[in-house]
Amino acid sequence: MHRQLATLAQELADATDRARRLVHGVNEEDFHARLDPSRWSIAECLDHLSITTTAFLPLIDAALVAASSAGVDPDRRYRRDILGWLLSWSLEPPARVRLKTTPRFVPTGAGSRDAVMADFARLQGELAQRLERSSGLDLNRARVISPFNARLSYNLYSCFRVLLAHERRHLCQAEEGLG
């Protein structure tokens, strides 16, 4: 795997481990509890991340198809475009800007602690597979249209970086919900 993508794969694995520790460190009631009515519970944070990943997977798949038709360059250096840089920077904890999500991405009701964690871990595995398939492809040119706002698009490398910053942001939020 390309060195830059291997770093992202490790960040993805770290986020999954972090979520597992968080989930297994609380009981079912605390998993669903909101300590502040204006902030999401641990369950809602993980559910939101799963909803987000589910929305991005087909977009990533389409971008991978486009990138594979451009040929393979195993030494390519991946770069975020300006929008990808700005989004990943703004999402990285600590939160610099508080953003309200679109209704499509608001968690509507999380299941049990084990079910939410299993879904999150499964989707993390799906993202890891996409990272593996990306190695050597031209991720700088392949575009992804944001499912949050169709007027925004960024390159596929930026997409992966944005998703990981988004995960760290909501895992921090979930940890803050512990009190």
Number of domains: 1
* CATH superfamily placement: dinb family like domain
What is the helix content? 55-70%
Radius of gyration: 16 Å
Number of strands: 2
Distinct helical segment count = 6
Strand order of the largest sheet: 1-2
Order of secondary-structure elements: HHHHHEEH
Secondary structure topology:
Blueprint: H1 3-24, H2 28-32, H3 42-69, H4 82-91, H5 113-134, E1 143-145, E2 153-155, H6 156-176
Antiparallel strand pairs: 1-2
Helix pairs in contact: 1-5, 1-6, 3-5, 3-6, 4-6
Short description:
With 179 residues, the chain is mostly helical.
Describe the model.
This protein has a single domain (3-176), classed as Four Helix Bundle (Hemerythrin (Met), subunit A) (Up-down Bundle), CATH 1.20.120.450. A two-stranded antiparallel ribbon has the order 1-2. The chain is mainly α and 179 residues long. The chain has 6 helices and 2 strands, in the order H-H-H-H-H-E-E-H. Helix 1 (3-24) packs antiparallel against helix 5. It is globular, with a radius of gyration of 16 Å. It has helices at residues 3-24, 28-32, 42-69, 82-91, 113-134, 156-176; strands spanning 143-145, 153-155. The N and C termini lie far apart (39 Å).
Essential attributes:
179 residues; mainly alpha; Four Helix Bundle (Hemerythrin (Met), subunit A); two-stranded antiparallel sheet; 6 helices; 2 strands
